[in-house]
Amino acid sequence: MSQTVIDSKTQTVKFGFWPAKEEITTTLQLLNLGKGDFGIDYHSKFSGIKDGEVKGGPISIDGNLTKVVNKSPEVKVIVSNYNKTNDYISMHVKIDVDIPVIGNETIYEQTLGGSYIDSTGWDVSLANVEKSLGGHKNIEAVSY
Q: How many angstroms separate the Cα of 40 from the Cα of each of 33, 112, 127, 138?
């Protein structure tokens, strides 16, 4: 599926004290999935009590929501202040995680948003190529 990035933000948080210490860096990307659909990709790196990373998505977003995206440890995504017009979308995203030993903490809280066109990057690129060819779809028939 073709998709374009509307916005991307990274946040790093630190919790606890030695020996129960954790650092988590999370990047979210707000995506235009095409045909009026939007979603969020995520990538988190963590170190401390446990080291590793998780990637996933897109999580479909079509309004305010609270969704558990992982059960153990529990990871909850909360979308609020969702606003979409014909060419702009924005939302506040908060991610709460039940961190082993430390407890429930917010690892991400940012507002994502930006302008979009109701097409993906490939659709726009192909339309621009066609336009630059004078509307001709048969490239071999075009002379320069």
A: 10, 10, 26, 37
